[in-house]
Design goal:
With 492 residues, the protein is α/β, with parallel strands linked by helices. Helix content is 50%, strand content 11%. The strands form three sheets. The protein has a six-stranded parallel β-sheet, with helices on both faces.
Length: 492
């Protein structure tokens, strides 16, 4: 059984285990239904939501088409404002850059605002290997870190935990990371929040290095933006002497005017708020205000390869709102851990296989972690057609494995374990391209429908183990049409 770098099994095995966890399923159902209902009410308040959604889509598509130009402009404006820009082709390079920057300060610990990019590259683990301890300060990320756990949701990483579990984690683990939990701590949300606040305060006041991500980067100004609900991010962004931001290259937007669109779309889609309680923006460095040194690490890590895919590139529009997770029937039952990636749910099923490739068992399974119901597309604030990308990636999985050079051409190496599926699809394509063959096959299927088996043999057994075979009609549509409407059968 293959596992991801985080030690998680491939989706089918992980999902099967999650389905047997009634507590997990209860936590997920309660949380996702609550968030989706609030989001629906918040979106309904906006009369031009469809127009905003289309504007967000077009801005993202325009930016991705001209990404090279806007990234160069961003580098110029960040540098002019006193920041330093670093380019990282992959996770290893990004981790090396950040580790060296922290070491240069002489510090052995950093505070972090929630950042999916740093989770993607496993920065915390890289820093720990270098003797540097990273403290998560987002409340949900703190719960995950203290519990030696993994995030399971984009917006609410600890969504799989209930209040009692969080109380127990605080009681047993806080002391090992700093200030212990108060005596007699209960599962009251106010008490839990206060325990986290007291625990983190000493970290904020002591830390000299902060690490962040960014929701957006404004190319024309060199400004980075973080939106959050707690204020911990602002503490990380303003108190340390050195600030290091690791951001995916797709997070750039051209202008302030473009940013305005996303600051309407994101809060309503994520936290169901009209605006985020804390929207922090910073531009380079300013004497006497904020960090003395600012470093921006622009992360590729598979994004350029994704951009080259005409269908799959739309996943790079994602603004990490998590709306798709909250409506997904598969995520609601399987949970985020089953996806084996920092990006769970429908967006993770299309983003992770593109960033990491579809050659591993886990990434080859993710495009199938969906019922293709389309609910994710309906709620996406930037109109990512996730079902379309899922089908596209399924085709990639079936057609072949890694790209290899064959003479002067780059082709897909045949994937292992999909020979029967490829043969079946080729046979179907051959028959569909020959109307006479198709007509004969349809009539034969109708006349022998009484012998239709309940399950398919061989590799098909895996499909019919969880699905019923569709009923075969007594008469093919072509014959019905000729009989009831008349006319000539043109099939040859």
């Amino acid at each position: 059984m293959n596992t991801t770098s985080l030690g998680m099994p491939a989706f089918p095995e992980a999902a099967r285990e999650a389905l047997n966890n009634r507590t997990l399923r209860g936590n997920l159902r309660h949380a996702t239904h609550t968030i989706r209902a609030k989001r629906a009410r918040a979106v309904a308040e906006v009369s031009d939501w469809a127009e905003l959604r289309e504007a967000g889509k077009r801005i993202k598509d325009h930016t991705l088409r001209h990404l090279d130009r806007y990234l160069e402009q961003l580098e110029e404006t960040v540098t002019a404002a006193g920041g330093t820009v670093h380019w990282a082709a992959d996770a290893a390079e990004a981790n090396r850059i950040v580790t060296e920057l922290v070491r240069a300060t002489g510090e052995s610990e950093v505070v972090k605002v929630k950042s999916m990019a740093t989770q993607e590259i496993e920065l915390n683990e890289a820093l720990e290997a270098a003797g540097i301890r990273a403290y998560e300060t987002d409340l949900a990320e703190l719960i995950v870190q203290l519990g030696k756990d993994r995030p399971s949701h984009i917006l609410v990483p600890a969504i799989h935990r209930n209040r009692g579990e969080i109380r127990d984690i605080f009681r047993t683990e806080m002391a090992g990371w700093g200030r212990p939990a108060p005596e007699g701590l209960s599962d009251d949300p106010a008490e839990l929040a206060e325990a986290a606040r007291l625990h983190l305060r000493e970290k904020f006041l002591r830390a000299r290095v902060g690490v962040s991500g960014a929701n957006f980067m404004v190319a024309e100004a060199g400004t980075l933006v973080v939106v959050e609900s707690e204020g911990n991010g602002r503490m990380c962004l303003t108190l340390p002497e050195t600030l290091i931001s690791v951001v995916g290259i797709e997070k750039v937007v051209p202008t302030w005017r473009d940013l305005e669109v996303f600051l309407q779309l994101l809060p309503r889609s994520s936290t169901a708020e009209r605006m985020n309680p804390y929207t922090s923006m910073w531009t380079g460095t300013t004497d006497g205000d904020g960090p003395r040194a600012f470093h921006l690490v622009l992360l590729d890590n598979g994004r350029t390869d994704t951009l080259a895919d005409e269908v799959g590139r739309q996943a790079l529009r994602c603004i990490r709102c998590s709306a798709c997770l909250n409506v997904c029937p598969v995520y609601e039952r399987a949970g985020g851990h089953a996806y084996g990636s920092v990006y769970p749910g429908p967006i993770g099923a299309v983003l992770s296989p593109q960033l990491r490739g579809t050659t591993s068992e886990i990434d080859a399974s993710l495009p199938y972690a969906s019922s293709l119901c389309g609910a994710c597309y309906e709620v996406c604030p930037v109109a990512i057609d996730i079902p379309e990308v899922l089908v596209h990636l399924r085709e990639r999985v079936v057609e072949g494995g890694p790209a290899v050079r064959n003479g002067n051409r780059v082709v897909l190496k045949p994937a292992k374990g999909h020979a029967a599926e490829r043969a079946a699809l080729r046979a179907a394509g051959w028959a569909l391209a020959r109307p006479g063959v198709l007509r004969t096959g349809q009539r034969l299927a109708s006349r022998t429908r009484g012998f239709r088996p309940r399950t398919l043999p061989g590799p098909g057994r895996a499909w019919t183990a969880t699905r019923d075979l569709p009923a075969v009609p007594a008469e093919p549509f072509r014959d019905w049409w000729l009989r009831t409407r008349g006319g000539k059968d043109d099939a040859r």
